[in-house]
Design goal:
Blueprint: E1 12-17, E2 19-32, E3 39-52, H1 53-62, E4 66-74, H2 77-88, E5 92-99, E6 106-112, E7 120-127, H3 135-147, E8 154-158, H4 167-178, E9 182-186, E10 199-200, H5 204-211, H6 221-235, E11 239-243, E12 249-253, E13 261-263, H7 277-290, H8 295-309, H9 320-327, E14 334-335
Parallel strand pairs: 1-4, 1-8, 2-6, 4-5, 8-9, 9-10, 10-11
Antiparallel strand pairs: 2-3, 6-7, 11-12, 12-13, 13-14
Helix pairs in contact: 1-7, 5-6, 7-8, 8-9
């Protein structure tokens, strides 16, 4: 693709959804335990990164957009560290609720490797809130978002199924879409109520679950098209972008060929970590549409950015300069049926 990456500076984007703390414990194998048939690991370090809606916000900010995030964290170490990370990246966090007695969703990944070897994930432990936010706190959060809506160019909704994405948020998303804002939902378990928004960006597993089909069959172009078309019509969005891992992406929707448009996976490096690649795809696709790109161009940009971040450990982001650097060799879109 020879077109330049748009200048995203000056675009104002809100991200609303589930904020997740990605906690990484790094360790080195030492010996087998005498207590049980397990490996003893020696602690080498740890860090907390931004996942879920927080990762979407970091991706948008890295590309130059002005970003504010709306969600909730607990008054716990993970929540405090997550807010510090976002603030350090220049993401606005005034819309984040700090909830007493609530647990910040936290994914602890144990990474182990011998010295000078690449670390591999050996265990993941999830800490989760006991339930969703109280309805009145959701109303307060959405009220704050509604107050800032006039100045927005785009809204990205990030659903990790911790209860924030429901009917009240869907109503606000429809309202903003009707006012001409780009609204993109990265769905997990819900698409009802979001009729009329700009786009959905499920991965293949999410498409399968939302369509009631087996994910293995969606490697086939015809089955993918059928499942995607059904979901697109049911959801009532303008576009449906399906992220397909090492098969790239496929795009369906208004003004596009009926069989869909696809692009092969970008990048020729070794895939290191796919964590957060869907966040990157949703954020870049939304930002490109807000900048006035055609949907197929937005897909190519999202695909190229995703190809960059999967070569990094953890939920990574890419800058506009990095995206420009790979765009010249990025795969071009074709009709899905011709693949």
């Amino acid at each position: 693709m020879s077109a330049p990456v748009p200048d995203f500076a000056g675009l104002r984007v809100a991200v609303v959804g589930d904020l997740v703390a990605d906690h990484y414990l790094r360790a080195e194998p030492r010996r087998l335990s005498r207590e049980a048939p397990v490996m003893v690991l020696r602690h080498r370090g740890e860090e907390v990164g931004a996942g879920g809606a927080a990762n979407v916000a970091r991706n948008l900010r890295a590309l130059g957009a002005e970003v504010e995030v709306f969600g909730a964290v607990g008054r716990d170490p993970s929540g405090r560290e997550l807010l510090r990370t976002l603030e350090a990246d220049g993401v606005g966090v005034e819309g984040v609720l700090s909830e007493p007695g609530w647990t910040t969703p936290t994914k602890t990944r144990v990474l182990a490797a011998e010295a000078r070897r690449f670390p591999q994930q050996v265990l993941r432990i999830d800490r989760e809130p006991d339930g969703p936010l109280p309805a009145e706190r959701v109303e307060a959060l959405l009220g704050a978002l509604r107050e800032r809506a006039d100045g927005l160019d785009a809204l990205v909704v990030s659903d990790y199924e911790y209860g924030l994405v429901g009917a009240p948020l869907a109503g606000l998303a429809r309202e903003l879409a009707a006012r001409g804002k780009v609204v993109v939902l990265d769905p997990r378990g819900r698409v009802e109520g979001f009729e009329g928004i700009t786009a959905l960006t499920p991965n293949v597993g999410e498409l399968a679950a939302l369509s009631g089909v087996e994910p293995d069959g969606l490697d086939d172009a015809a089955r993918l098209r059928d499942a995607a078309t059904r979901l697109w019509k049911r959801a009532g969005s303008l576009y449906l972008l399906v992220t397909r891992g090492n098969l790239g992406m496929a795009l369906f929707g208004a003004g596009l060929p009926e069989e869909g448009v696809a692009v092969e996976a970008s990048g020729d490096g070794e895939v290191t970590d796919v964590s957060g690649a869907g966040d990157t795809a949703a954020s870049v696709f939304a930002l490109a549409l807000a900048a006035g790109c055609e949907p197929t161009v937005a897909m190519v940009l999202a695909n190229a950015a995703s190809g960059l971040v999967v070569m990094e450990n953890g939920c990574a982001v890419c800058s506009r300069a990095e995206l420009e650097g790979v765009l010249a060799t990025a795969p071009a879109p074709t009709r899905l049926a011709s693949r």
